[in-house]
Amino acid sequence: MPIAKAIKDILGSQSMIRKMFEEGAQLKKQYGADKVFDFSIGNPDIEPPPAFHRVLLKLAKEDKKGSHGYMANAGFPEVREAIAQKASREQGVAIDGSHIVMAAGAAGGLNVVFKAILNPGDEVIVSKPYFMEYRNYVGNFGGILVEVPSKSDFSLDIAAIKAKLSPKTQAVLINSPHNPTGRIYPAGDIAELAKVLEDHGKAVGRFPYLVSDEPYREIAYGIEAPPVLAAYNESIVVSSYSKSLSLPGERIGYIAVGPKIDGKEDLMNALIYTTRILGFVNAPALMQRIVAELIFARVDVEIYARRRAAFTKVLDEAGIEYARPDGAFYLFCKVPPAKQPAAAEQPAANDDKAFVDHLKKYLILGVPGSGFAQPGWLRFAYCVDEKLIKASGEAFKKAVETWSR
């Protein structure tokens, strides 16, 4: 029997990240895991902090009736209150549990948000490059993803966003710290964007939501991601513990809405309802109870800082340019130029897909920037052992030398 045409089309150009991850698994079987420099996927290798294991064991030993059963779709009330404390601290606003919906990770949370706010044909503006699944998350519910360029340093180009605003704009989607560039948008940019959205809303009678995807908020290097909920009334924050607590497989996150958001009761009811009808029903019960006790915990960010330093040294010595990340654990790199023009029948010298294929000859795995709507670049994830990063140095040098001939 045939499958849906839309899904068949997507499968034809499925996630480059997953594709590279699967290729890496095959290479590791062939050559050994220690010989393959797999920087393809943002799957944290750091173990959760010790506090996580202590709380997990404590709750596992409890025999509290109903602790593993259904609860209200928004989550346990006491968990929502605990998460509201965390969000209030980070976002510079005072909110309570009525502003929180627990989610099955940030991906689940974003799908819940877009299901709740989008009508067919509504537009969601996003800056390039962007996490490749955003197009599917928006398209799942009939929305249209509208791309705008970012500035040369990958900061927000507010003028470009303003130029794309229209009566159909339902949301602007931002991600800070950013995947794939690691950029943290400064407070001034957030304030300027808020002003543009406010002016647009007054002009057309429709205030777009500002949706901020923040799973990397707590992985930052000497700089904090500025609050969004305090900057613009119509803001929604989606976050998770996949990175901050190294729990990507546990699928636990949350949605937080601003205290002054218009039509809060309707929006919260919509978020709760869409959590149910999308099949999540509720966020995982055990993980909800665990993270409620860990609102001040996080992984050791210094480990990632050391890896960033080791990886930038490798890239500097190989002659690969990159955008220095403020947070997250990715390096977004320029495809190095060739000394001689490519033959007509050969890929262009700045072809990111061709360069990624070339790197595989040296057992280096990255993801083409085309997958993030930024051709000519590629992404490496440094959530891997520092020894592997340092060991990749000679392979990178050889790859660049042979690519440049």
Structure, described:
By secondary structure, the protein is α/β, with parallel strands linked by helices. It folds into two domains: 5-48 and 300-404, Aspartate Aminotransferase, domain 1; 66-292, 3-Layer(aba) Sandwich (Aspartate Aminotransferase, domain 2), CATH 3.40.640.10. It contains 14 helices and 13 strands. The protein has helices at 5-12, 16-31, 50-61, 77-91, 105-117, 134-139, 158-164, 187-204, 264-277, 285-292, 301-318, 352-360, 386-391, 393-404; strands at residues 37-38, 100-103, 123-128, 144-149, 169-175, 209-213, 235-240, 253-257, 322-323, 330-334, 364-365, 367-368, 377-381. The strands form three sheets. A seven-stranded mixed beta sheet has the order 2-8-7-6-5-3-4, with helices on both faces. Strand 3 (123-128), helix 6 (134-139) and strand 4 form a beta-alpha-beta unit. The longest helix is centred in the middle third of the chain and has 18 residues, at 187-204. It is globular and about 60 Å long. The relative contact order is 0.16. The mean pLDDT is 93.
- By secondary-structure content and strand pairing, the structural class works out as alpha/beta
Give the name of the CATH architecture of the largest domain. 3-Layer(aba) Sandwich
Give, in spatial order, the strands making up the sheet with the most strands: 2-8-7-6-5-3-4
Q: Count of DSSP E strands?
A: 13
* Approximate strand percentage: 5-15%
Report the principal-axis shape: globular
CATH H-level superfamily title of the largest domain:
Type I PLP-dependent aspartate aminotransferase-like (Major domain)
Q: What is the CA–CA distance across the termini?
A: 50 Å
The chain-level mean pLDDT equals 93
The level 1 CATH classification of the largest domain is Alpha Beta
Low-pLDDT ranges? none
CATH names the topology of the largest domain as: Aspartate Aminotransferase, domain 2
Q: Can you summarize the main beta sheet?
A: 7 strands, mixed
